[in-house]
Amino acid sequence: MCGIAGMFDLSGQRPAPAGVVHAMARAIYHRGPDEDGYLERPGLHIANRRLSIVGLADGQQPIANEDKSVWTVFNGEFFDYKEKRAALESKGHVFRTHTDTELIPHSWEDHGADLLQHLRGQFAICVWDSRTNEVLLARDRSGICPLFYTVIKHDGSDWLLFSSEMKGLLASGLVERRADLQGLNHIFTFMAMPGPTTVFQGIKCLAPGRYLHFKLGQTTVEQATTQKTYWQITYPDRGHEDYGTDEKKLVDGFEEVLFKAVQRRVWADVPVVSYLSGGVDSSLVVAMANKVMGRPIPTFTISVTDKKLNEKSEALQVAKHLGCDPVVVDCGHDELRAGYPELIAAAEFPVIDTSCLGLLHLARSVHQQGYKVALTGEGADEWLAGYSWFKIRKLVGWMDKIPGLPLGFAVRQLFQMANGQPRFPYTSYRNTMRHMGGSNGWLDVYGLVSTNKLRFFTGAARDTLLARSPLEDLEISPDLYRWHPFNRQMYFGGRVMLPGHLLASKGDRIAMHSSVETRYAFLDEDVIAYMAKIHPRWKLRGVMNDKYIERKVAERWLPKEIAWRRKKMFRAPMDSWADTGGAGRGPDARPGESWIDQVLSPESIRKAGYFDPNAVESARQKLAKPGGGFARTSVEMGLTGVLATQLWHHLYLDGQLCSLESKVAKP
User: Fold this and answer.
1) 158: annotated binding-site residue?
2) Is position 100 annotated in a ligand binding site?
3) Cβ–Cβ contacts within 10 Å for residue 453, how many?
4) Which reaction does it catalyse (predicted)?
5) CATH of domain 247-382+502-564
6) What is the pTM of this model?
7) Which CATH entry fits the domain spanning 2-229: 1.10.101.10, 3.40.50.2300, 3.60.20.10, 3.30.70.270?
């Protein structure tokens, strides 16, 4: 993968301000340390930072068509490059390089903006056609590759700036740094930033399967920034799913599409490795990759030092069975406290899931070992019901089946009262159900995060967060009500958690921080389509047999105990911010850890203006005492969100909350 950036004068006339795009490209150097490239014309300046993986010798960007009338910069991979190149050459197109980037300008010549229907893989692209002055900015279907944009007024013109990361936009010096409280509302509702809203005012995220298309000199700001959809996940109408009366045929079909997806993703001009957790998803990907390569590939595993959270032994068992050479990376309380600022800096938004730090260390290890590409098993849980909320909903879903009787809401209220949790009014619950097309197991679990809006926020910030539902920003599919309720749950996991969390704070931003490209076989277009069409009984059989069809395939590749191993929700410790008797407080604090006290101090809490300092101090003292259960987990998640937000504010907006170096220029 790479990093792309640039700016367009919407009037199509003025030259870009000197040095701005170069500064944007420098800010995302980590995405492409191998080389850079620029194209400057009246009305535009675009840039690429390259991580060379395909076409090592001649893949420099920007790249053009034969007569240099169509130019592109590209982040990602097209896994059907060889077949697409042959098809384009048969039509008379002449290729001058050996890189998949060159598919873009030639495909534009044939299809214009409809080229997105013909591109397969993971990508964020910018196309400029000099003949028509058309611009296209687009993102892949699942949201693997990020793309952010904003519009600013400069020197009398409206300029659209874009970048693979928000730090590229901020580095322009033209974008004002301000918090978007609705973006923080997303963080404290979804534990994710799914887009298009971000935590910075004025900066938007191009949502998965979306694009911008406009003509310089013939567009308004609104027209240029209106996101259009070329793809989104869809399901058959309820009752029209593939029920699968022939189990072998259905399992054979899934094995075939998944194997081909793995086969496509080991293609590169550099060596490929894989993450391995010991669960069925990554284990199956590694087994198939070994088959394709004809040899075991190296694997990388996180070892969380907390015994209750550690999957090291399971991963090593799989590696031994498959003959892989494993690399194990340790991560615990000490690494968490020391590395959390780097995690927030890399992700660019408050990250509540502390396990993301483990992925940061994992990607760094891949880079240190000299590799650039890693396979992962992400995506199966979203589309095959691998998470606990699917099971919870199957057990308690009966409470919400009686129209007009909010039994589920009443039970939740009683449960929260018994655990001393703050509670939302019934109107909020009713509006949420309306947006989500009914009750939803995903909400049952992530309600743990939402209650912290009531617990920690204060004043105007609290009022702003409670005034608008973040669900209104998601552009939810109008077909939602036609689907099986089980598929509705998967839709929200795929729309929110996948691009907003797993592919962001555990995927692209974290891996590319160490110049590593991650590839996702379960997010192949054919695999997604296959998983979507089958009946929910092939995703969750009974209450406990999740990812049923995948596990039936895994039985053919792995020992049965691995194929049916229960999922562990991988996470790192979340109580590292408590009053731990000197570990992070006062004169006895370990080196580098005083920042925890500093950003959570009453003075810093008041300066940032989001949270109630008394509520924060109370939570720290509560977590300093031993304990467990629902109430404690909710507070842990909330305090982690507070710390992450304060740290993000310091790093990106203020630079005044602690002694850590920030990304804000000092006055």
Assistant:
1) no
2) yes
3) 21
4) L-aspartate + L-glutamine + ATP + H2O = L-asparagine + L-glutamate + AMP + diphosphate + H(+)
5) 3.40.50.620
6) 0.93
7) 3.60.20.10
